[in-house]
Every structure is written in structure tokens, then in C-alpha cells.
Amino acid sequence: MRTLVVVLAGLAVLQPATATAEVTWTLLKKEGRAYLQGFSGVEEGDVEFWLQCRADKAIDLGAGGDTNVGEGTGEAVTLTLASDGKTAKLNGTSQQTRNFQMTAGVELRTKVSRDDPVFAVLATGKAIKVTGSIKPVTWPVKGLKAKVAAFLQACR
């Protein structure tokens, strides 16, 4: 019985109700276009959030790849991002991540415009709480505000 209690206590520590994901934000170019990503840094991990400019001025968005959103079979999924009184609801489909072969990650994918509320959430400078079709998680945002501004400037 004592072993069972220790094992259950260990599992509770490993899987908190709301996790804080380690996320490092990077702005770079991918396929010749501005690309902003939040990566966990975990070896063989997946990108937790990404944005990429498109030629038609829209922006591709992927979210939750490291925490897995849905089954990855194209079903509808929703995430809500909230920070400092700002909220953005992302409606998309569950797709395999770009690194699926290594990680088996699935993410929400959608397309947004420059004026989407998600950019107000990303630019608050405060931690972002993510809820919806995942186990709730909080993303740290060190350096993100300036990178969001630079990304949007590059997407013109």
C-alpha cells in the first residue's frame, strides 16, 4: 500500500492540473518568410506555438504541438489564450506537427490576420494561460513582446 501511495504522489507531481511549459521564443526566417516560434527546448520535443507569414498577407498559426491538441486527424479543436485581461480564441483543426515523425506531436492549425486578437495576447508581456482542447498550460513570455512587434513588421 505504501508503494502505491508513493507512486500516486509521484504521478501527481509529474502531471499538475495546470502546467507551466518552458518556452523559448525565437524569431527567424523559414522558407524565406518571417517565422516566430515558442519551443520547449526539450530534446526531441515539439514547437509549442508558431506563426509564419504567407505571401497572401495571412498568417499561418500552429499551437499546442508539445502538449498535443486533439488526435491529429483534422478534427475541429479550440484553444483559448489569455493574458493580462486579453483573450483570443483559436478555432482550427488538429494536424500532425512538422516534426511528427520524431515526436508524434499534434497541434491546432489555423490561419489568422494581422489584427487577430491573438497578437494582443502575445504582446502583453505577461504569462499566457492556454486552455481548451488540451490540459491547461501556462507559457512564459520572456522577450516575446518585442518579437511579436518585429514579426508583424516583417509580415507587411
Structural notes for this entry:
With 156 residues, the chain is of the alpha+beta class. It has one domain (21-154): Sandwich (Immunoglobulin-like). The chain is 22% helix and 40% strand. The chain contains four helices and ten strands. The protein has helices at 2-14, 100-103, 117-122, 144-154; strands at 19-20, 24-30, 33-39, 47-53, 59-63, 76-83, 86-96, 106-112, 128-132, 137-139. It has a ten-stranded mixed beta sheet. The N and C termini lie far apart (62 Å). Mean pLDDT is 86; it is low at 1-18.
Describe this structure in a few short sentences.
This protein is of the alpha+beta class.
Mean pLDDT: 86
| CATH hierarchy: architecture | Sandwich
Order of helices and strands: HEEEEEEEHEHEEH
Number of helices: 4
Looking at the structure, the CATH topology is Immunoglobulin-like
CATH class: Mainly Beta
Rg value: 16 Å
